[in-house]
UniProtKB/TrEMBL annotation:
SUPFAM superfamilies: Adenine nucleotide alpha hydrolases-like (SSF52402). It comes from the Bacteria. It comes from Thiocapsa rosea. This is Universal stress protein family protein.
């Protein structure tokens, strides 16, 4: 883990941002986690190079929702709008971090959103990612979320396989629960590693004082739809998983985010 200190403490939490409502919800959640863990919050504003490439194609047209007017796409105007959006998001980040007393930083990342986004948060031990850019929903808006100095009432899920990375993200979730009264749901993903009974026994040993605030749930199905049903049924606000989990594979990442319906935090 590149940025972790010798004690394994989370020093930096990165969050992928654009100007969409879902992105701002993710910012509020990441800021609350950063405050809970006394970590720096890094906002990463995403400029999708594929979107810019498509905007340069002469046959594409743009339909403005507000006016229903159609026009050709203007790459220069799009870039100006992106810069303006980045300034707005930076101001929002500064205000949110200031309200919570969290150290913060901001940078613009440009790359292929679909193929390269996981590389945008390499310097952080925890990378919060939701549906942004061309993968954000056009109509459905998230429920309003305000940044909080406490995570009490938050339901944090952790996908646990028994791997070294899964041990790391379980410890992160436990720290959130112990220090800030978040409820914890441990999803036992036995198809990848050991059997469910072995995983369950091991997790129960790790929970300690968090047993009363925790639920252990075996993942019956191995596909994203089965996991999404579990996330929805238990009302999870955030799902934490390690960077080696197959759900983060390039072919399934955005499908996973769309199906889950809640942000994910990727532990490194």
């Amino acid at each position: 883990m590149s940025a972790a200190d010798p004690g394994g403490r989370i020093r930096r939490i990165a969050v992928a941002l654009d100007a969409s409502p879902h992105s701002l919800q993710g910012l509020a959640l990441a800021a609350g986690i950063a405050a809970a863990l006394n970590a720096e919050l890094e906002g990463v504003f995403v400029e999708d190079t594929e979107l810019l490439r498509l905007a340069g194609l002469p046959f594409l047209r743009e339909l403005r929702i507000a006016t229903l007017c159609e026009s050709t796409l203007d790459v220069d105007r799009l870039q100006r709008e992106l810069r303006a959006a980045a300034r707005g998001v930076r101001e929002r980040l500064e205000r949110t971090a200031g309200e919570l007393g969290v150290a913060w930083s901001f940078r613009v990342w440009r790359g292929d959103l679909e193929a390269e986004i996981l590389g945008a948060g390499l310097d952080a031990e925890l990378f919060a990612l939701g549906r942004i850019g061309r993968f954000a929903p056009l109509r459905r808006r998230p429920r309003p979320t305000a940044p909080r100095t406490t995570l009490g009432g938050l339901v944090v899920g952790v996908l646990y396989t028994g791997s070294e990375g899964a041990e790391r993200v379980l410890s992160i979730a436990l720290e959130l629960g112990i220090r800030h009264a978040a409820s914890l749901v441990v999803i036992l993903q036995s198809a990848i590693s050991a059997d469910a009974a072995t995983l369950r026994d091991h997790v129960l040993e790790q929970l300690g004082t968090m047993r009363e605030q925790s639920r252990l749930v075996p993942l019956e199905a191995t596909d994203t739809a089965g996991l999404a049903a579990t996330v929805r049924n238990l009302g999870m606000d955030l799902l934490i998983l390690d960077e080696t989990n197959p759900l983060l594979a390039r072919a399934s990442l955005w499908t996973s985010l769309e199906t889950l319906g809640c942000p994910v935090a990727i532990g490194r």
